[in-house]
User: Fold this.
Amino acid sequence: MHNMIKYEGIPNSEREIWLSQEKQKSQLELEEREGMVLSSGRIKKKGEELRDQIASEMWSNYQTIMRSRRFAHVNND
Assistant:
């Protein structure tokens, strides 16, 4: 409603300028929202990469521990 009142109260030449400014604001807001989506996608990918790296390191450490335990067990017999 506010925009309609504002729109109707402006002469034609100024109305064109105002419409152009409103369109630019809308475009900037859209680009900002799209940027946030892209940014969150990058953050998600980085998180997935970190998770996979940690899991890989944990698996490698586990295998090393299990090998050392088997070796220790064989030497104690």
In short: The chain has one domain: 2-76. The two ends are 87 Å apart (CA to CA). Residues 39 and 45 are 10 Å apart (CA to CA). The chain has a mean pLDDT of 79.
